[in-house]
Amino acid sequence: MEPLSFQEYICSLDTATLPRILRICSGVYFQGSVYEISGNECCLSTGDLLKVVAVALQKVICEDTETGQTMELPPTFKGEQGYPVPARTQWVPSSQARPLQPPWAQPHCPTGLFQPAPAPGPYPTLRGLFLKGTGQRGLTLHQALGQWDRQPQPLLCPAIGPHALLLHPVYEVHATMHLRRDMVKIPSTLEVDVEDVTEAAQHIHFARPLLLSEVLGMEAALPALAEILEGPAGPAVFESAWVPRLQRGQRLQLHGRSHAWRVLASAPRSGRHFLLSSTYQGRFRQRPRQFKGVRELVAGLRPGRPLRVVVTQDCEGQGEDVPPLCTGDWLEARGLQGNGPGTRLLCHRHSGEEEEGEGEELLLPLDLGGGFVEEACDSKKYGLAELLEQQPLPCEVRVVAPDPGLERDALGALPALRLEARLDQPFLVGSFCEEPEEGFEIPPRWLDLSLQLSEGPVHPPAPCTRRSRVEELTEAFYYRLLAQLPGSPAPPPPRPPKPAQAGTGPGGRRPSAHGPPVPGPLPMSACPAPPLLPRLALPQPSTPSQYGRRRPPRDAGCALSSFPGIDSNSTEHDYETVDDNVQKTIRKMQAIFPF
């Protein structure tokens, strides 16, 4: 088949023969045609293959052969009422050979149907095609377009006007391309030449890229080999060394879905965050919980189990009803009493010197402060699954026996670990082709990437996934994940400290260069107002001060220090000190003019 323009090929295409495979022969932009598909730029280069699967008529551009004016017809055009019809001009026959009536008044040309134009010209006549095998005296818009023969034919339509018309259809072509996920939608007016290679390209398979999240639901196709087409986008999730290797061109072995669940954990003191797998073999020991205030004590109560704590911070009482709490007091929180604003926590207080049965009952208001620590007597070592059965989350623990299967267990060196929530996120077990024995577990919904499945043998046994038992999370992803947990509001990430300005100390104050630190400036009300003096010519000192530095007067310094941004002790100002003679003169003038 000879190459045709894309418009000519689509207009003459029989949709009953779809799908068809086309090859791009030439383009208009440096051997390629660039266009936009839903905002994404795509390029059709010479030699690319298209698999056309559907063609849809978008509009028809109707051109008047005499005036050159154009108008658009919708695919549903029938010439009925309600469709805007151009104003008809007065018809004047140009020759004696033409009929005496205008074309739209002829009985053989009904309104809304198309007939071949009687005007002579270089166009082949379609009268035989229009009248052959039809029970009507014209064709609808779609029937007229079906008679396309590589070039538009002159037609008449009484609903449009008296002149001959040329119909230029514009189709939307739906096609698939190799290694493109979405269906490509191309206008038929794209200026490229194509060649039909359907018969010679029957063996070609148009591979569609897959997302890792889609492979998660294709368990029947696993294990399989895959090649990464595009690495994961977005911020990093794990701090692991295997994550940066997930780049374009990397070959993977996908073995199947992992059946392990995860626990989100964080180290309170170091600010690090982890994701623990249920296959973690380390041993934990419970740490006593700490509470700040009575309200946190209420949140730590468990149904049917009293909470025993020790007071770690003195707390003042509230009148006669609430006695003060002293450090070392032993409290047993038993439950709430009352409703509404008067709700109290019922506790039994027992000091260290009293016997077991002695003590007093206290009703503590929920807004009472103080500090408490849980009395923990459990020294048993737990595995992760056993710990979650005994202890509800969140809870604080300590790793007393690291995982023996890990070369370096980062949890063993932490003084405390807070287990926050259990996650049932699906993971896929994978490995690199160059390291088939060492596997990893990747969460497709958090770390998605584009890949292509390929044929080839897969390493039979599932790889060891020791490296995924403890995954350290990035701080940004930790807070994003914490915000997605149901029922647990995520605290905002800590704000970084403000950078100190050059030459300033804490609080933005400039340190003194000589002598001890000077206290901050007094407020405006603390500075005595200086008395008003008449304008006198005061003598100027002829020698510098004894300190070798000229300083402002005391009253002037106090007045200046009351304004923000002005430091009375700054060494940047250049003032002269009033000597003793001048001060004596000022005092005499104050005695003479007492105002």
UniProtKB/TrEMBL annotation:
Q: Name one GO biological process term.
A: T cell receptor signaling pathway
From the UniProt entry, list the residue stretches annotated as the region Disordered.
484-576
Where's the CABIT domain?
18-79, 222-432
Task: Give the CC-aspect GO terms.
Answer: cytoplasm; nucleus
* Bias kind Pro residues: ranges: 488-499, 514-533
The protein's matches in InterPro entries, at most eight in alphabetical order, are given as: CABIT_dom, THEMIS
So where does this one cross the membrane?
A: none
Q: Which PANTHER family match?
A: CABIT DOMAIN-CONTAINING PROTEIN, PROTEIN THEMIS2
Q: Which family does it belong to?
A: Belongs to the themis family.
| Protein name from the UniProt record | Protein THEMIS2
- Please report the organism this UniProt entry assigns to the protein: Eudyptes sclateri (Erect-crested penguin)
Instruction: Give me the gene this protein comes from.
Output: THEMIS2
